[in-house]
Amino acid sequence: MLRHVVLLRFHADAPADTASRAVAALKTLPAQIPEIVSYQPAVDVVRAERSFDVALVSDFADRAALQHYLAHPAHVRVYEEFLAPHLADLAVADFEP
Predict the structure, then answer these.
(1) CATH of domain 2-95
(2) Where are the domains positioned within the chain?
(3) pLDDT digits over 12-46, tens only?
């Protein structure tokens, strides 16, 4: 099992609904990408100074499944349409739980 954790911070001038729209778009991916074992995107609720706007915790069977997800056209579309235009910072960690 491989856990993929992503933290997204959007530009301060991004539209107010950017995080909720990003999460809604991410939530469509499990139905389209069978390699996803578990998928939990969410908007940060604490909103501390160091907080990121969105967190994603997902699980994949192995590295090959993660690579398939990353290259999948549905994932690429969500990234390019809902995330990349507004991204100020992104952090990723992949590990075996």
Answers:
(1) 3.30.70.100
(2) 2-95
(3) 999 999 999 999 999 999 999 999 999 999 999 99
